[in-house]
Amino acid sequence: MSEAELIRAVLIEGAVGGAILSLLAFLLSRFTKDVVGRTLLATVLFAAAGAYFGFAVVWVVAAYILIAYRGASHLARSRER
């Protein structure tokens, strides 16, 4: 699977998942109390935001660790000369 095909598949999967979530929240609001559908939607969206934020934090920490490692190795190599 090429990168373009993978990106397309992920975008389609996200759109389908979002449509299903929206439909489920709408139907819950329609046939039960309004707060039930809104609570489901808010819970899922906050969970997705938390996962995104966690991934971003891990990415930044890994980048800083890589910068420190490369800087230290270049510094050690320059002192050997």
Molecular structure report:
By secondary structure, this protein is mainly alpha-helical. Helix content is 94%, strand content 0%. The chain is built from 2 helices and no strands. It has helices at residues 3-31, 34-80. Helix 1 (3-31) packs antiparallel against helix 2. It starts with a helix and ends with a helix.
List its traits:
single chain; 2 helices; mainly alpha; 81 residues
Can you summarize this structure?
It is built from 2 helices and no strands. The chain has helices spanning 3-31, 34-80. α1 runs antiparallel to α2 (34-80).
| Order of SSEs | HH
**Count of helical segments?**
2
Shape: elongated
Over the alpha carbons, how many angstroms does the gyration radius reach?
Answer: 22 Å
Beta content comes to under 5%
Structural class: mainly alpha
Count of DSSP strands: 0
As an assembly, this protein is: single chain
The major β-sheet equals: none
Mean pLDDT: 91
Residue share in helices?
Answer: over 70%
Gap from first CA to last CA? 46 Å
Q: Segments where pLDDT lies below 50 for 5+ residues? A: none
